[in-house]
Amino acid sequence: MVGGYIRLHRQLENHWIAENNDYFHWWVDMLWMAKYQDTESDGITIKRGQLEASVAFLTKRWLLNRKTLDRKTVISFLKKLENDNMIIREVVDSKKAIITICNYDKYQHEPWRVTDTELDTISDTELDTILDTIKKIKKKRNKINTPQTPRGGNQSEQNFVVDPAFAEAFELWLQYKHEKRQTYKSEKALKICYNKLVKLSHGDPQIAMAIVEQSIGNNWAGLFELKENNGRTNNQPSAGSNPTNTVTGFKVIKAGG
């Protein structure tokens, strides 16, 4: 990939990959090498989230940062990833192998690429409109110009305005809910959710993003106050009520030119 970025979740800090510098480097390198769109290579289709990499290729590539590296070490690392359901390996022949990064689209999603057609699977609800609106916000970077309220109508019910500063956090939350097949059934529900996010963050977009990432990282169904001093706020669920899944999510890392 020439440009763009990959995502790494803060939760990776507590994952077994982070306990070994080589493992961490190799995992990020695999994410880096994974295709962000389908491509053809020697008559083989390499799909988004896949990379063409044999054990021999990876051993030679990763040897650059070490004095020595044998095939057994690389194979052992790949088997650990397979056992943890992080990758799937498919050997094409003695010189080729396709590695699929599991849940690539879930964590390396690009919300701005979502189309109405893709969202029609949830009956083309207000979520389509909201996501489209947020995409426009990213381009204009100003307040949304909503249609004029019809006579006799209620301004607060007719118009749903998202502050551009909160657009990225709110979009990430909507995408997360969409992937869990949990949707908001009305614009009123969406507005309540957005206002809650702004209120919990005390009007700070960075805190809003942290709140969203906290809920996603803990697999929560709702938004809650940000944890402070490793404690739990009154509005957060107890640790036993909704256990955290072991995932390898992603935080943004910008790629080089």
Task: Explain what the structure shows.
The protein has two domains: 101 residues, Arc Repressor Mutant, subunit A, CATH 1.10.10; 109 residues, no CATH class. 40% of the residues lie in helices and 10% in strands. The chain has ten helices and seven strands. The strands form three sheets. A three-stranded antiparallel β-sheet has the order 4-6-5. A two-stranded antiparallel ribbon has the order 1-7. A hairpin with a 5-residue loop joins strand 5 and strand 6. Helix 6 runs antiparallel to helix 8 and helix 8 packs parallel to helix 10. The C terminus is likely disordered.
Which features would summarize this protein structure in a list?
about 260 residues, mainly alpha, Arc Repressor Mutant, subunit A, 2 domains, three-stranded antiparallel beta sheet, two-stranded antiparallel sheet, 10 helices, about 10% strand, disordered C terminus
Low-confidence stretches: 114-125, 141-158, 238-257
Percent helix, as a range, is: 40-55%
E-strand count: 7
- Main beta sheet, described? 3 strands, antiparallel
Distance between the termini: 10 Å
Number of domains: 2
By secondary-structure content and strand pairing, the structural class works out as: mainly alpha
Q: Based on CA inertia axes, which overall geometry fits? A: elongated
Strand order, main sheet: write it out. Answer: 4-6-5
